[in-house]
Amino acid sequence: MFKTLAQKIIGTRNDRLLKVYQKRVKQINLLEEHYKKLSDDEIKSEFNTLQDKVSKNEKSLDDVLNDVFAIVREVGSRKLNMRHYDVQLIGGMVLNDGCIAEMKTGEGKTLVATLAVVLNAMSKKGVHVVTTNDYLAQRDANEMKAIYEFLGFSVGVLVQGNNALRKEIYACDIVYGTNSEFGFDYLRDNMCFSAEDKMQREHNFVIVDEVDSILIDEARTPLIISGPTNRTLDGYIKANKVAQALQRGVASENPKEKPSGDFVVDEKNRSIILTESGISKAEKLFEVDNLYSMDNAILAHQLDQALKANNLFEKDVHYVLRNNEVMIVDEFTGRVSEGRRFSEGLHQALEAKEGVKIQEESQTLADITYQNYFRMYSKLSGMTGTAQTEASEFSQIYNLEVISIPTNVPVIRKDLDDLIYKTQDEKFKAVVNLITQLHKKGQPVLVGTASIEKSELLHSYLVKAKIPHSVLNAKNHAHEAEIIKDAGKKGAVTIATNMAGRGVDIKISDEIRELGGLYIIGTERHESRRIDNQLRGRSGRQGDPGTSRFYLSLEDNLLRIFGGDRLKAIFTRLKIAEGESIESPLVTRAVANAQKKVENLHFESRKHILEYDDVANEQRKTIYKYRNELLDVNYDISQKVEQNINEYTQSLFEEYQDYNTLSEFLNSEFKIGVDIELLQTMQDNEKLTLLCSSINKFIDDKFKDALENKENIQKFIYLQVLDHVWREHLYQMDILKTGIGLRGYNQKDPLVEYKKESYNLFLELVQRIKIESIKILLMAKIANKEEEQQELKSVEENSSAKKQLRNDLCACGSGKKYKNCCGVSGPKQGIFA
Ligand code: ADP
Ligand code: MG
Record-annotated residues binding ATP (predicted)? Predict the structure, then answer.
């Protein structure tokens, strides 16, 4: 990074912060002697004394930091045989300060985390450590457990599928798990029906490992729990046929000239634009007059997705077919994403394209972005080898400062300039040549590729060259970690999609050091410089030797789409012959500029998603807060009910305009008795009060002999209505989001429009919760004691009957008692349908 003159003179902010941290490291180092002399038990007892003081609020976490860090270091060296290096102490402090510790691969971030984890676990509010996959969560927790348990903390690991234990795991002082497990548990917690079913405690302190991968790369895909919409899917097949009947054209260089064909593909923005001829052709095929009228919005949307599926998405690059199912390939990890589906009909469009069964379209039942999930923590921190390129995004979106920490031992890896070839074939031949040489020598080499497809291509080249090698990709990721661990062994040749095995330590022996260490070959530049740096960082850990070099070609996607013209010009000017390459810092810089362009595009798109989610986030917070109140046994709902009865009555009055008619309605609809004679003697405001109190009395009577506590039933009804109406709302918000883009054409800012409309929808939602809950209260038939006696009798008489007892678990599988579930009888149809 280039420093400005001012920075050179007064030092960067990073340098200044490091100085402050280094001072503190000295203080911690001074405590080392003391703790070294103590026995295990003595250390434990000194730690307990500190813990006591923190618990009693006599000391803050910051007050005890020096001692706690010194203790953790001592315990680390006794129990794990690893003494925290000074730079690792700095990392621990950076995490504790709620910042991002940028520490290179191999610097021991797993161990760094223990310092901040222990310190913050002392507040007893829970500490979460987030990793990118289950394997790492398990590994890190297992490896570090010795420190935590020695100091008396419990450790839990969230792995897929252990749902029954979740609550216990979250009760632990320290919880390791993946981002999606934490996020989905939060959503599930806000769909459950009793406070006891909630798994998570507070969102207190979290350390996100590989933070760039989680908060940036994955931030474009929100967490969504979805369910079926029950709509017809034939439209996708038709749209696919239409899409395939249209001719792809090219946009003319001259903006005044019309593009040819029926549609053009804009690879930069990953969008498709229909030409006039395309529109009229599509209208003919769909047999509609105007594709862009509101009535045909769904057709237009399905056609758009079908065109994208056919022209922007490639099999084995963006998705794979497995057991006749379309599965997403994660572009960053190269892995098949189990269970994830593209949203807004794109997945259905791909299924139509591949001619496999089109799976039901789903709608959002609950969703949140990672951004908004992680912003809920009182203190958020992270660590990674590569954050500096995205420092401004971390600061703008998460209010996270990136602090770069020097390595324990200087890095001596040689990062060579890129080599650029004209064609992909020449490039791969050169790569194979290099691998052959290295392999002969015995120097291990790790080759990074941009996709599964490219991994397989390289694999076929290596088979021809008879070089033994392992391929790591989405298809055998179960053993990924095991394979990549050995990537530093003598003669090893390992091919991996760009992030496969991230976080796994590659160790090398002295013999390999002699041979020059691990050689890293990149076969394509990734869209983001960070990912390339990650690949490089697989080599040269803790002062080990190593080399890295990227091999590119003008046919690579990145160069073809962004900034290829300049490079092509250089090639022609220099008259580069076949098989020859250019190597120059100039070229490397041109490539980096292309990458910056793409990084910016992605940042904008993430910001865009977040701007939209922020609107939803406020609503989600309001709804979840109210939901939590309803689950709270101490919450008194009676006032609310009374108030809502009042509002309901008023709304009815607005409809009927007359109290007599209104009371007749109440009587005929619900059998609510109103003293009409009394009513007629009253003033208008008194009339309203009389009606409300009649309704209140009606409800009270209903509950007189109820089996279950009145309040509980009322809360349950509110909860049901809230969930139902909230889901409907989310569905409308989805449609609003996809449809709102079209309004951009009317010179309106889509985001402003979205905010306005979604606010109106939200007001409606709140109103509906109130009114519908009261309606159900009025209509519901509440089971009473007498009825239960009869029910029991009938069950006894007919012992083989499948009839459910009111206290049995409900047969619908909700996990609730029958009387609290389907046993609340009432005209659910029509309101819940
Ligand atoms: P990172 O996550 O920063 O890439 P890891 O946490 O995977 O690094 O650690 C890399 C290797 O360094 C591991 O084998 C670990 O055991 C080792 N290591 C980390 N810290 C120390 C230490 N203070 N002393 C000795 N070995 C360490
Ligand atoms: Mg790590």
Answer: 88, 106-110, 505
